[in-house]
Known about the structure:
Blueprint: H1 3-27, H2 43-78, H3 94-99, H4 107-111
Helix pairs in contact: 1-2
Amino acid sequence: MNETQLEDFEARIHARLDELAEHSALGTEAQAVVELDQQAVGRLSRMDALQNQAMAKAQQANRDIETRRLLVALTRIKDGEFGYCEDCGEEIPEGRLNLDPAASKCVSCASG
C-alpha cells in the first residue's frame, strides 16, 4: 500500500472518529437516569423511557467498540502494520479495508 492510500485511510478514520464523538455527545442525555414524572401517563411512559435509555446505552457501547477498533487501526498505520493480517501477515485486500478500515485480519483468518 502506498503512502497516498495510507493517508487516505488515516483521514477517513479520523473523520469517522469525529463523527462517533459527535454522536456520543448527542446521546449522553438519552443515557441519563430516567426520572419519575408524575405528570406522565404512568407505567407505560416510564417503560418507554427506560427502553429508550437502554437503547441509547447499547448504541454508546457499539460506538465505544468502533472507536477502540479505529484507534488501533491508527496505531497500525503509525507502526507500518496497517493493511496486513495480524495473524498470517498476508496483505488485506483494499476492498475489505474500504468497507472496514479497522479490519486487522484477512478474510481467511477472520472466518477461521
